[in-house]
Design goal:
alpha/beta, oxidoreductase, 404 residues, FAD-dependent monooxygenase, FAD
Amino acid sequence: MSDLHVIIAGGGLGGLALAQGLLRAGISVAVHERDPGPAFRNQGYRLRFDPDGITALRAVLTPQAYQVFAATAGTPGSRIATFDHHLNPQHVQELPLVPGLPGSGNLAVNRMTLRQILLAGLDKAVHYGARLTRYDVSASGTVTAHFADGTNATGDVLIGADGVNSAVRKQYLPQARVVDAGLRLLYGKVPCADDRARSLVPPELLGLWTTVVGPERRFVGLAPVQYREPMHQVTARLAPDIELGDDSAYLACVFGARREQFPCTDAELFAMGGADLRALTLSLVEGWHPGPVETVSRQDPASIFPVAVRTSVPVAAWETTSVTLLGDAIHTMSPVIGVGANTALRDARVLADRLAQAAGGRPLTEALRAYEEEMLGYGFDAVRDSATYGNRMLGQDPLPSGQP
């Protein structure tokens, strides 16, 4: 075990992936998560994984855990399609295939299943109910993180992986802004475990990702999550020590529009229950093709929740210290091109590798600077690409001008 000790603020996908990579490298790590338990908040459903995300998980997970990830991921092909609200095709794209990766580099992943895989083996490393409030850096460079419950933790490095509202970012980079992108999304699930349920969804809506765009750029996004075998069979065959909750096939269903399209205030929207959110969505897709309307109507009301889309504004590089940032804490982005989780996992892979170099003798500041230079390049490229596509296709606010 290396003498290096890393503190991670935030137990989301990026923070947990980093912890897995560090443990594989023999580096001491502690994850401090504000939530009281691993399944406290509804954080979403289906994620699209591309080669960056898949390659990152292959690097940070144990071989057995990676096999469980690959076996529990859906393989819906590589087609991304856009239709108008009468289901006339507007654009169809087949993403490149990458031989040697599961699903040829295109997977549909259930977020909670992935989270359970990433938590495997981290029982002693993850501390719940630990909301970071501030940190101090000593003259020697060690960092002490302070938590709302009065406890603290000291290490050689502090990683802010604490999401879009990152307390680490607010202290470390007060000039870094996160802005409202102008879109509101309603996430939900359509159960489709049996053939009859699946037959009710038009087959053209069952690719890797499908967007149906209606008047005033209101849209419905659809993507299937289907499992090839029951979870308990996967773990029994590949990794009995990993515990996964049971799940059944579903269609992720996301309605989105500009905030002005909703006939209510944000406060009213975020106070609504699932049945009311479904009724609201149906009122906003009235007159559309029966296929997407029927799909929306079959959402499980208990699964529906609203999200305000936000985006980081790119910032210039900063002076490297023993504090750095990962994932949404530095480059949160609109989900419209589906690369946010992949980018966070890429961060975890790169940072784990750089910290392993530091544990092997490379100066710590030099290793962290190398991570930041790489991460700021691809991370803010993804932010810009997401904002550009979201603005053109869905009316997302453009990024504020004048940024690096």
